Each structure stands twice: as C-alpha cells, then as structure tokens.
C-alpha cells in the first residue's frame, strides 16, 4: 500500500499534521512525487498571465504555490471557452487566523478576480467539533467568526457561496458523500490520512465531506445541469520550516489580531536570523538567506519584486544588517494586518448571512 502520509520517510504530511524529519525541513520534492503532482513551472505561470490578461500573483511568481494536478486541463478547457469553479475552505478552530491561514484565501481571491469564476468556501465546523473536542455550538460560532475574516479578504458576494457543514450538508451533497465513501477502502483512507486504531469513527468517515464540494452536483442551487463543470482547488499544507504553525504557541506566527507592538516584538525576538554573530563577520560573510525567516516572510508579503531582490542581494552580501531587514518586514506586516483589521471591522452579520444564503449567484461567470 502506498503510504501517502509520508511517515516511512521521516516526515508526516496529513490534513491535520505536518512534521519534518528531526532537525530537517519539509521535503517538497517528496510531496510532489508521493501525491502525484507536477511542478508549477514558469510556462504555466506565463500561460495564466496570457489567459487572464493580468500579471501573475506574487505567490505564482515566487513559487509559493509550487505544484498542481491537472491544472493544464483546466486551462485547456478555459481556453476553449469552458469555465470552472473554485473550491477552498477553512476549519474553524480558533477566534483568530494567522497569516498562514490567509495565504490560500489571498490567492483564491486573485484566481476569482482573474478568471471571473464562482467560488464555494467550505467551513468544516463538524470537523473541528470532532478533532478539537469543541461543542457543536462553539464550532458553529467560530465558523461565523472565521467567515468574517474570509469575507474581509475581498471576495465578490455575487460569485461566492460560503457554507458551514452543520448547516448545508444533506440532499445532493450527502448523496455525493455516500458515492465517494463507497469508492475508498478503509486501508486506503488510513494510508492517505494516517488514521490509527485510537481515532474515533467520525474521523475515519470525514474525508468524503471534504471531497464532495469538488463535484458541482453537490450544489444544485448553483450548478444545476452543469455536472461536467471542472473544479480548481487552491490549498496549502499550512507549514512553517519544520512543521505546522501552532495556534497553541502565539509566537510561532503573526495573527490578524496582533497589534503593531505585538508584530514588532515577534519579529525582533522570535524571527530567526541568518545574519552573522557580529557586525564585523556579517560585513565579511553576509547573511545565510536559506535559514533567514524575515527574508522568507518578505518573499510572501512584499509585493515589489525589485525591492525584494535588492534586499536579498544587499543582505546576502553583508551590506544590509539584520535589524534593517527586520525593520522592513515589520512595516510590511503591520500594514497588511492593519488593512485586514479595517476590512474585517466593516463585515456585518448581515454580510455573513448574504454570503451564506443558499441562492443562485447572479454574476457567476461574468
């Protein structure tokens, strides 16, 4: 049996756990091989730019989204005039999202705007009720709170349907769940997801719930008569250098609720630097960019390619100091978090209701 959860090779990658080999990093090449993916190369990036008529997103330009399955087929169909829809989601287990949580939503918004296609966003409140030992009511409350952060990313309500599993699962959606469940053996699901004999049956039976949204017939109010519509799923493995970011360690990530003071403190105290141990040595040898966390964060969130390359060159050569790089990162992250905070404050309960209402999407493909 193929063990896709990577345990036999020293790293674990499942939807719920990400851990590198001891002392090492996540091996992306192994992930690509084991999960049957292909590298998202420059030719695909250029093709997206040509088909959409807009510059590729920073996450595409810099390889943040690094692999795909059948993306060429989606683009082939799009070029023939056949549309597709997007599907992504969020497991609502905490009040606040960190920037790692925002990355797939930021990229999904770009895809929605660029291709002008509909989007379904699944809030797996049932999953978190089972995995995090939350009550049903608390899971539902967190789903609505997290929906506000998602809406704050700027999604188009006329093309977006957000749903919680507790509210929506049933009817055509449930029929697809049953069809999917019949296709997957117990051994296969254990191999893919890493379940053990200690896991309750709710966990083992859950994967079809997350698979069902990839079939348009799960949403008859949106895609009636469009059963062959393709689905594109932007997703992330939610990892840092060696494993999954931890909500239990507030210093392991930048949260959208962090103040400017919090961000400054986290970057200055906890962001590992690749700079040398003295200014003299730093001027002589330069920084090790491969291990420098501020450089990695700037690679995600500093939009200007020329500025990023300038920082990498000067810092790597020792002409720029660690404090200068961290200062620029603090500016970038503070502006990003403040912008998100303002957008979220403007999201009302009525707006959440509008996004989660079961209704046709008026501008679905226009």
UniProtKB/TrEMBL annotation:
It is an enzyme of class 6 (ligase). Its main location: cytoplasm. PANTHER family: TRYPTOPHAN--TRNA LIGASE, CYTOPLASMIC, TRYPTOPHANYL-TRNA SYNTHETASE. Its EC number is 6.1.1.2. GO terms for cellular component: cytoplasm. It is found in: Cytoplasm. Belongs to the class-I aminoacyl-tRNA synthetase family. GO terms for biological process: post-embryonic development; reproductive structure development; tryptophanyl-tRNA aminoacylation. This is Tryptophan--tRNA ligase, cytoplasmic. Keywords: Aminoacyl-tRNA synthetase, ATP-binding, Cytoplasm, Ligase, Nucleotide-binding, Protein biosynthesis. The keyword ATP-binding applies. The keyword Nucleotide-binding applies. GO terms for molecular function: ATP binding; tryptophan-tRNA ligase activity. Pfam families: tRNA-synt_1b.
């Amino acid at each position: 049996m193929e063990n896709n959860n990577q345990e036999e090779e020293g790293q674990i990658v499942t939807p719920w756990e990400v851990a590198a080999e001891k002392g090492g990093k996540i091996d992306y090449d192994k992930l690509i091989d084991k999960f049957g993916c292909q590298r998202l190369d420059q030719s695909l990036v250029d093709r997206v730019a040509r088909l959409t008529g807009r510059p590729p997103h920073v996450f595409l330009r810099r390889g943040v989204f690094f692999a795909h399955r059948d993306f060429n087929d989606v683009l082939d169909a799009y070029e023939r005039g056949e549309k597709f829809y997007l599907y992504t989601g969020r497991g609502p287990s905490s009040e606040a999202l960190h920037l790692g949580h925002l990355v797939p939503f930021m990229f999904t918004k770009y895809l929605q705007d660029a291709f002008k296609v509909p989007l379904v966003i699944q809030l797996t409140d049932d999953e978190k009720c089972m995995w995090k030992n939350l009550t049903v009511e608390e899971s539902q409350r967190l789903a609505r709170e997290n929906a506000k952060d998602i809406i704050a990313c700027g999604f188009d309500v006329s093309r977006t349907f957000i749903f919680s599993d507790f509210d929506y699962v049933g009817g055509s959606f449930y029929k697809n769940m049953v069809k999917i469940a019949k296709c997957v053996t117990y051994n296969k699901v254990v191999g893919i997801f890493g379940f053990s004999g200690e896991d309750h049956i709710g966990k083992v039976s859950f994967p079809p719930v997350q698979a069902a949204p990839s079939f348009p017939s799960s949403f008859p109010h949106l895609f009636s008569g469009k059963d062959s519509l393709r689905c594109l799923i932007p997703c992330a493995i939610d990892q840092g250098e060696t494993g999954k970011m931890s909500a239990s360690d507030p210093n392991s990530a930048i949260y959208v609720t962090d103040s400017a003071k919090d961000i400054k403190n986290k970057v200055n105290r906890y962001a590992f630097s690749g700079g040398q141990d003295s200014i003299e040595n730093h001027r002589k040898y330069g920084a090790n960019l491969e291990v420098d966390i501020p450089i990695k964060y700037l690679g995600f969130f500093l939009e200007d390619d020329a500025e990023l390359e300038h920082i990498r060159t000067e810092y790597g050569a020792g002409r720029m100091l660690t404090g200068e790089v961290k200062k620029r990162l603090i500016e970038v992250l503070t502006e990003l978090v403040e912008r998100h905070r303002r957008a979220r404050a403007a999201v009302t309960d009525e707006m959440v209701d509008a996004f989660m209402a079961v209704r046709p999407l008026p501008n679905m493909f226009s």
